[in-house]
């Protein structure tokens, strides 16, 4: 029996394999979350240098080598700059074995790294459980991984990079070419729903942005939020946009009120909306059809 046949025949094996795969991908997402904003900042500095005529080298961020991307240089300890060996880079296990400290200088390693790995692994396993073996599960995992990366980048930098949102949008449209799945999986949706979802997702938040700006003179969200909403609309279809935006808005309001009350932050302190969109998108991916069915059942005659 081949590996594919074994995974297809054993749901438990497929879920376990997805968990391990998610842990590995989560380790890579940690790299993306940290390095991609630095890479973009470097590119923007270079573009500004070209416009102003300054030397590009003078605009390099401090401590960043000339060759810096998602592959090189190797990951290193932020404190002593010692390269992290493969043995010390095993997702989750290495952090636990090292008790959250660098093997060389014993400097603490942020809890963020194992949390992202664990979150990616658990959500990937849940997707495998929900969708079962098949390519729709893989597509749902890809959406999950993009969402995690975007959420954490937005938390750190209030930035939703085009280099993630636009590929996610085009992938959603591409996947819809093969939908809907005959097995009744939530993904992929049909092409018409995907196209309308992409357009409606962008226009809906774009309209809210301009309405809020005209009333208050302030910007309530960024253009990255529009693009993420468009991408989620392309993946999930226009039918899921309303619950998605309502969930994201409600969660954002609750968190905002909690921060103002507990941390005494000012009401004008910006709160990134991308994490709420990403989380709402994942919830709708997993439970959207059930939520809509239960809502419609309220209006149906017994």
Description:
With 302 residues, this protein is mostly helical. The model has no long low-confidence stretch (mean pLDDT 88). The protein has 2 domains: 132 residues, no CATH class; 169 residues, no CATH class. The protein starts with a helix and ends in a 5-residue tail after the last helix. It is globular and about 65 Å long.
Overall 3D shape: globular
Helical content stands at 55-70%
Kindly report the average pLDDT value.
88
Strand content: under 5%
Tell me the total number of β-strands. Answer: 0
Radius of gyration: 21 Å
What is the distance, rounded to the nearest whole angstrom, between the alpha carbons of the first and last residues? 49 Å
Secondary-structure-based class equals: mainly alpha
Tally of helical runs:
10
Tally of separate domains:
2
Order of helices and strands: HHHHHHHHHH
Low-confidence stretches: none
Summarize the biggest pleated sheet.
none
Layout: helices, strands, pairs:
Elements lengths: L2 H7 L1 H42 L40 H5 L14 H20 L3 H23 L4 H15 L14 H26 L6 H14 L4 H22 L11 H24 L5
Helix pairs in contact: 1-2, 2-4, 2-5, 4-5, 5-6, 5-10, 6-7, 6-8, 7-8, 8-10, 9-10
Features of the shown structure:
single chain; 302 residues; mainly alpha; 2 domains; 10 helices; 66% helix; globular
Describe, in short, the structure shown.
The protein has helices at residues 3-9, 11-52, 93-97, 112-131, 135-157, 162-176, 191-216, 223-236, 241-262, 274-297. By secondary structure, it is mainly alpha-helical.
